[in-house]
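Why should sequence recovery work at all? Because a backbone constrains its sequence more than one might expect. Tight turns favour small or flexible residues, buried strands favour hydrophobic ones, and helices have their own preferences. The token representation captures these environments compactly. In the example below, the structure is given first.
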């Protein structure tokens, strides 16, 4: 089981980025992919997940969209109207349960993590 993120970078406020999470070794039909982010000195924050339910953190609702391309075995996080406070290392993680996307996703529910990709929003 492996997940690998890509798509981070530096963008100006108001700009957009699309993160990708490529999955291997498991079926996206039965597993949940969650996106988390972490700022140094702060707790890891759940950003979004999509299983039987879809979750977005209040801070990203209306700006971020999660989607899945089963043929490519990839989950995307489209991030629009980016703000400086979105700056963080973004990681995707895989959980062998759809319950990992009921309520606020918790770190302990996810078993496999990518290495993370840096997103920097700055003028």
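From this structural description, the recovered sequence reads:
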């Amino acid at each position: 089981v492996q997940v690998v993120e890509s798509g981070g970078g530096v963008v100006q406020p108001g700009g957009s980025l699309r993160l990708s999470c490529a999955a291997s070794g498991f079926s996206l039909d039965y597993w949940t992919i969650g996106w988390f982010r972490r700022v140094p000195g702060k707790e890891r924050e759940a950003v979004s997940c999509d299983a039987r339910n879809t979750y977005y953190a209040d801070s990203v609702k209306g700006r971020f969209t999660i989607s899945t391309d089963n043929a490519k075995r990839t989950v995307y996080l489209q991030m629009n109207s980016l703000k400086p406070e979105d700056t963080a290392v973004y990681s995707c993680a895989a959980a062998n349960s759809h319950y990992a996307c009921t309520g606020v996703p918790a770190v302990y529910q996810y078993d496999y993590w990518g290495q993370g990709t840096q997103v920097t929003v700055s003028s």
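A few observations help interpret the result. DSSP finds no helices and eleven strands in the chain.
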